[in-house]
Design a protein that fits this description.
CATH class of the domain at 87-116 and 124-276: Alpha Beta
CATH topology of the domain at 87-116 and 124-276: NADH Oxidase
Low-confidence stretches: none
Mean pLDDT: 94
Strand order of the largest sheet: 5-4-3-6-8-7
Number of strands: 8
Bound molecules: flavin mononucleotide
Length: 276
């Protein structure tokens, strides 16, 4: 009898892909050089002028005017307004912090189930973002700093039960600060007001969830999906008058330890600060 393969339990990510993921990690010893490079780009007129006007050079070609967006239907108008409002907010209010209600709305608008599982047609529950094969490789973790209805700690957002599950509780603010310094380089970087941010989101991918079907190509879909979620987070923030800023420079290994990833196929793709 032919052996039935259980693809769920076969290794599906190539060593060279793991090499690439390792190469793209940021370690503590590289943080200084990394932020110097970022500052060199951002403080240079030459680089900023050139990157702000980049376009693909096509030479001569026919051009057609697009129409204005003066007469949009109501929902499209709402989306247009959110697009105008969306931005990266790096400074947060000392007195005003976000509430559990703000966080609940934020998570629901950013990432939630929009259509339940239908056993008759074997379609997985649909979510507010598209996903290659409906496999949804991204998990959202929340590091709470100032949301007073919750303990200071690390949670996973359970999209199925609409609950935050506590993974790790910090003893006190000191332990939390140490963790933020280690994982987000909070003290070393002056890009974002880390101490006043109410909470941090961490977008973690379980690559096997996507790669068991798409092999190494699934890594692309996971990275894309983190992009979709972060854009949804920015739009959710704009709609709720919550400030947010993506964080690309983090200590991969330290975050993996803090969150307690179980497999090498779990990696952090992006973090995000939120606050008022
Ligand atoms: C993948 C990614 C990583 C980012 N990392 C950082 C970061 O580490 N620190 C920061 O201050 N902003 C970060 N940002 C925010 C960008 O700098 C910001 O989106 C960009 O300057 C455009 O500004 P806007 O979002 O206000 O339109 C990041 C954005 C993305 C998409």
């Amino acid at each position: 009898m032919a052996k039935i393969r259980n693809l769920l339990f076969e290794p599906c990510i190539a060593d060279v892909s793991y090499d690439f993921l390792e190469q793209s990690k940021l370690y503590c010893f590289q943080a200084k050089e990394y932020s110097e490079r970022l500052n060199a780009v951002m403080s240079s007129d030459y680089f900023m002028r050139n990157i702000s006007q980049h376009s693909i050079e096509l030479g001569f070609c026919e051009e057609y005017d697009l129409l204005t967006t003066d007469h949009l239907p109501p929902l499209a108008q709402a989306l247009n307004e959110l697009n105008q409002l969306r931005n990266s907010q790096r400074n947060f209010n000392q007195e005003n912090k976000i509430s559990l209600e703000d966080l609940s709305h934020f998570l629901h608008l950013s990432y939630s189930i929009t259509q339940r599982f239908d056993p008759a047609i074997l379609i997985p529950p649909r979510r507010n973002i598209p996903s290659g094969g409906g496999l949804y490789p991204i998990d959202i973790y929340v590091i709470n700093q100032h949301i007073h209805e919750l303990p200071q700690g690390v949670f996973i957002y359970d999209i199925f039960t609409n609950k935050l599950k506590l993974i790790r509780k910090f003893k006190d603010s000191d332990e939390l600060n140490k963790a933020l310094n280690k994982t987000l380089f909070a003290q070393q970087k002056n890009d974002i007001d880390y101490t006043r941010a109410s909470a941090f989101m961490v977008l973690g991918a379980e690559l096997e969830r996507s790669c068991f079907k798409y092999l190494d190509r699934g890594i692309r879909w996971a990275i894309l999906e983190a992009g979709e979620i972060v854009q949804a987070m920015y739009l959710a923030s704009a709609s709720l008058e919550v400030g947010c800023c993506a964080i690309g420079g983090f200590n991969d290994e330290a975050l993996a330890q803090l969150i307690d990833y179980q497999n090498p196929s779990q990696i952090t793709l992006l973090a995000l600060a939120i606050g008022k």
